[in-house]
Design a protein that fits this description.
The chain is an alpha+beta fold and 353 residues long. It contains four helices and 24 strands. It has four domains: 31 residues; 86 residues, conserved putative lor/sdh protein from methanococcus maripaludis s2 fold, CATH 2.40.420; 92 residues, Elongation Factor Tu (Ef-tu), domain 3, CATH 2.40.30.170; 125 residues, OB fold (Dihydrolipoamide Acetyltransferase, E2P), CATH 2.40.50.
Length: 353
Amino acid sequence: MSDENQKNTIFKYVKWPLIITGIVILVIFLTRKNAKTVVVREIKPEQRVVVRTVSSGGEVVSKKDSNLSFNIVGTIRKLYVEEDTFVKKGELLAQLDNSSQYQDYLAYKDARDIALRDKDVYIHTETDGDDTYASKIRRYDEYISKAEATMNSALQALNKTYLYAPFDGLVLAVEKEEGETVTIGETVIHIVDFSQLQFLIETDQEDFGFLMEGQEVNIYLDAYENVQIKGVINELPKYANGGDTSIFEVKIDLPDNLEEDTLVGMIGDAEIVVATTEIEVPSLVFDQIISSADGRKFVWVEKNGIIFKEYIETGLEGDVYTQIKSAVEHNIVIPIDNGAEIEEGFRAKIVNK
């Protein structure tokens, strides 16, 4: 084969790969030349303790807080306490006009006493036979039992005309005056025990799932700037609040020895730590990590001036930071303008390199 034929044969085999390679290089050149440029800055994962909390606004309440009322309709005869009065459990607070109930009770008590005396007289003077004696004793017992039931019913009605303190506490309000008529269930006296305070918050279903009884809570009251009060979740509800299936009331016990003058009705915020890495771990701000359509996590990285995705493994997602569990091989970048469009293949203009 001549040298010229040999050259033609070699060119025949290499010309198309050369042409294709040239086209690819040209496309890359033109693509990079025409690719959109986005201004970015480099960021690096930082070592932090990642913390997730549940936060909610709430109000200071008392474990024992009661609006006292009568269970019958009547006229207030006597009020024995005033507002801001400290009372002891069992102390008489108010009384209705109960002359009618009292007279009924006395009458039924007399009837019971008469039945008892009649039975006693019969026992000591009886002359009947055994059968007649037993029959009359049963009859006396029936009279006595009926008289006692009627008397006890009258006594219960009489007791309903008195209002007693259900626990030691402070009278916050006296809602009625002597001589005023009250209905069943109408508040007469409001009493609160300030020695046992709680902080009451509401959470949604998502946050509620992280809570447990005994968890520590940091409470910050609006009345005291930069003062942290330690509380403990005392009780979790068994059902949603008022039929609203998305809201749950959570009760947090406050310490007994509070230095601050904490009052019922004060508002503030509760912060409950529900998860933590406990040690410092590599992390990024949560919005610096993107979720793809298939649920995988990635960050934007730069290599040779071009932006592309690098998929990563994440750990605990905290309130502000998210744990990074896998090493990131390239330089992580984020746009300077939060609203800037960014896609794979964009050219990166790094301003802090």
